[in-house]
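Subject: Predicted fold for Acetyl-coenzyme A synthetase, 524 residues

User T.R. writes:
Posting the sequence so we have a shared reference for the thread.
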Amino acid sequence: MLERGLSYDALRAAGLGDVPKLLNMAAQVCDDWVDRNADRLAIIDLSEGPRKDITYSDLQKLSWQVQAELVARGVRSGDRVGVLLGQSPLCAAAHIAAWRMGAISVPLFKLFRHDALASRIANSGMQAVVSDEEGAKMLATFDLDIVLRSDLSDPVPQPSVQTNANDPAIIIYTSGTTGKPKGALHAHRMLSGHLPGVEISHDFLGLEGDVLWTPADWAWIGGLFDVLMPGLALGVPVVAARMARFNVEECINIVEQTSVKNVFFPPTALRMLRSESAQIDGLRSVASGGEPLGAEMLAWGRKSLGVEINEFYGQTECNMVASSCGALFTARPGAIGKAVPGFDVAVIDEDGVETDGEGDIAVRCGAPSMLLEYWNNPTETARKFRGDWLVMGDRGVIEDGFLRFVGRDDDVITSGGYRIGPSEIEDCLLTHSGVVTVGVVGKPDPLRTEIVKAYVVQKQGVNLSEIDLQTWVKDRLASYSYPREITFVDELPMTVTGKVIRKELKARATAEAKIDISKEQEAT
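User M.O. replies:
I've generated the structure tokens; pasting them so everyone works from the same file.
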């Protein structure tokens, strides 16, 4: 834990300290706690009905069961193990089991469809998947060993493989903004790098009575490493609750039922709460990340949530690198926050030199939460670095230590709290026999930040409908990433080398959004 009572500058000066050479995340989030206090509450489980309290001892035994079954299936150190589960103790136990045996876990999302699963399974070379009956049906066409809860035998203590801090532990796939999604390979030191940012984004998480929850799925880095694993490592009970989709009333019930004190709310969840004039009492901290919130949202948070919303910044490749912290300093309107203790965050130019003006947001190499590489992709790995810096792909400015986000340098679409890569959707649509070419961009939307918008050129003589192509994507990728709007066009703006100029399509979509808003205002 960060030392309480120090100023921000003092914490920055102290840094993170040295990460131990020998390190395994299974010990950090489970086994070490069992040695200290086996009966300590780890997870408040609402995933299967009435509340069930899971202690660290319970979690260890469940992970032993999973580990034994994986070993019986022939999984060994270095093998990849998929985890296709929603928020649940089994989800946590599956990752812990994989790490303890030296395997590499790969989180998978329940809203993925066949093509999205296939690309990740093939790229990672996955040997087995821990899932449930629903997941088993999704995986039926793949040649994989599937471990279900019903397969697990009585718990028997399982051995821990000795791992170094830099040994691979997990592959988390990016949004696939250019080409197919890339697998960010992270080491066992990853969690140590997340802890400071998680702590300060919750005004020093780990105080007596803290209980942590997020509506974000644990298949993503935001749910898994901004909430679940840091909470377990810090001894803060984490709530596991299934939500098919975000619902304001259900959200409030979860908070009240489990006495949640600390929440990570994605921006879309905050907007939905605000749109329904929700009031939540009893919270101690609220963190949010993924996109800037704006002064009005922060003011609403103070009034309706009773706390200062702390914004944080990061990405799958290097997360929790900057954050606000109301307990340390007053937030600056329009700024994300300051560099998290232990991270050197800067704005650099094309030559990798720090600049006082606008430039590329970058993090100095050596940060523990920084990826090792993109799995089996040395070309993209090399492109991610510029000299001594990892380039985040965003433009920004640093003013008096505060990081201000200017815009994205890529084409990622932020919709409903998800980061969606247009390339994967374009590739999916191009497999339809009636589509000649397609361009996908984000169209500004007041609720979701952006919606996925597709511009499609269809084959001559074909008469496609919007619903045809929406269903095509829903059935193959993920239910949240289908194009909510499709416009059929005669041609797309292209470069001389035949690439779609998304910048022009983005400008067109933005103009359409402004027209939509004007029409709504006229109607009211």
